[in-house]
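WP5 quarterly update. Target: Mannosyl-oligosaccharide glucosidase. Source organism: Phycomyces blakesleeanus. Length: 728 aa.
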Amino acid sequence: MWFDATQFQGFQRIRHACDQGDKINGYGYNKHDGRNYAKQTINDGPSNIAITTEFIKIPGGQHGGDWGVRVRGKPMDDDVETITSVMFSLALEGEGSMDIVSKLSPEGLVSPVRLEGDTPELGDFEIHIVDGPSNEHPQGLDQDLSLTQWWGRELPEGIVMENLLMSARQKVSQGDQHDAFERPYAYFTLLNTLTEENEEVSNFYTFQKVFSGEFQFDVLFRSQSSPNKITGDSLETELAQREKTFDARFQEKFRLHEKGFSDEHVGFAQYLLSNMLGGIGYFHGSSVVDRSHHPLEDEENFSDVPIKAELTEPRSLFTATPSRPFFPRGFYWDEGFHELLIGKWDNDLSLDIIKNWVSLIDENGWVAREQILGEEARSKVPTEFQTQFPHYANPPTLYLAIKRYLDRLTEYRQENPINQHTFMATFDNPVLLQSLHLESPEMSKAWLRAVYPKLRLNWQWFRTTQSADLSRFNRKAESKEAYRWRGRTPNHTLTSGLDDYPRGEPPNVGELHVDLLSWMSFATRLLKDISSQLGPEFSTDVQEYSLIEKEMLQNLELLHWNEENQAFCDQTVENGEPIHVCHKGYISIFPVILGLLEPDSPKVKAIFDLIEDENELWSPYGLRSLSASDKFYNTGEDYWRGPIWININYLTLQSLYNNYMRVPGPYQGQAERIYNSLRHNIISAVFKDYQKTGYVWEQYSDKTGEGKRSHPFTGWTSLVLLIMAEEY
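Structure tokens (predicted):
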């Protein structure tokens, strides 16, 4: 936590939780390995300070080992006076104790500040807060600002800002109010006291340092069971080594220089990966669910019935997040895309996250599309969006990530014939932790066996709750395989992930949605592939999936292909008769981007033509979400009605690359042309805007290529790295 202490108003801009309204000139991780090392830069223009934070973990001993943090600051404009007040907080939850063992003084604490503590999980530990070698400090009032100011309390009932305000009020009441505006850094300081009934116990501490100009300090956690204790010198050495290791591994994984990218492009690509990894978090708490209606009851029967929400039992989730400031929680629709990149970098970390998500699938096969776990998570979500409904779905994108794992598994076994001796000989190699489920056939099969039952349950839930009614309307189909998104409202289908994308109006039980049938076809094919690898006892499942996949693909063309528009379309019902609803855009290309059409299908040609047409989906910056010729283009909230989304553009590129460009067929040349141009446009647009703004964004304008809405949005926009590396 920090603020500009040069100006009195600087205290009102105290930085803590990242927020889009902070007007920071770009921030994020420049390097992050997902496990033991990270480096972050925060360019705080309004405070004239660029802050760099670096972090390492050093495993060892019986309690997890040591960790260290280095915080550095440098004025962005050396000609501007810069005084920065920085605070670092330490809190202890659960059993145990933590105490300052440095000599306490009302003037402040001498560096290094030392704390000691113990918990059942961490054992005995100590923490050192150490000043850098050449810090400078302004003059205080009754406190020595070259020392560390501090505050501790038994429970964090108040907040740090209250303590700073209390300190400022006391000093102003005893002195010159005008001086407080001239020298705010001398007034907004911690009180150097313990605020508690029992002054022998405190479990929450905040330490404050006030710097003039450039600064540095370290925070070192030392486990008493660690064989080699971290020090300031070893931190320096470790940080330099970890950075070199990260750079070398990044080059080995993605080989961007070999593809002709500059150092600036590589730095941008590292930013994409690092912020995806830096956005991974552990969440715990209850969610809000309304289970008052039967899952198969139509929405029309309770559209005006009040919500009957209840808190669930607390659950836990380990997940990546789309955006640290705006969407700091898990989203089912997003997570499968996230794991495409995470899995390329760290296979086993990705499998751990996927398995966590699969564990949330309940006994009926449902998983909430948005994981808003606990009060802190709910504080970021408007009340009307907090309640989850157990008949609402979301695109099952985890299947994308699991398919990519199966692809990696196949590639690895082809390149590395199984050799048990080699595997055992390298088992203690830390890098192996990232690929155990590739190295070991037993572990890979065990993982698939562990997730398969709930994946199948979720698939069955989709086929039950999201199935469409073909019998009530005069429809011709080969089977009952047809689907519609439940939970529709006028002008919105939030459950589809495509929110305001135009559909049939008004919402009704006779709708059929082409994107959902496409997702179901893709999921069925993947479950067939998984079950075929699990052994002969799953042969019945394989046969079932094979039959249903065939029926789904038949109905995809029978029910959703519109010959007049040469496009795949939704259906709705008017006057009791089914009609196509054709709004050309992302939903029209789902059968191609999920690889469901054979390379020689004439419908592939029609979709390629739709993609390439500048009056339809093609723009100089990527594929727009809705055709420029559609009457709803750029209307309403304009969320999925024209702007460019990287996740769908990525799916398009990977399908062109894997299914149509490198496979013989009559449209192979057109596929390659689209692929090369689209890849170039996407990389150029996102990189150019990153250079301009310091951020990557939730979506991009199809007219200017400028980033729009949430930022930094280092969820699926980070897939640009895979596009650069051509890792599909």
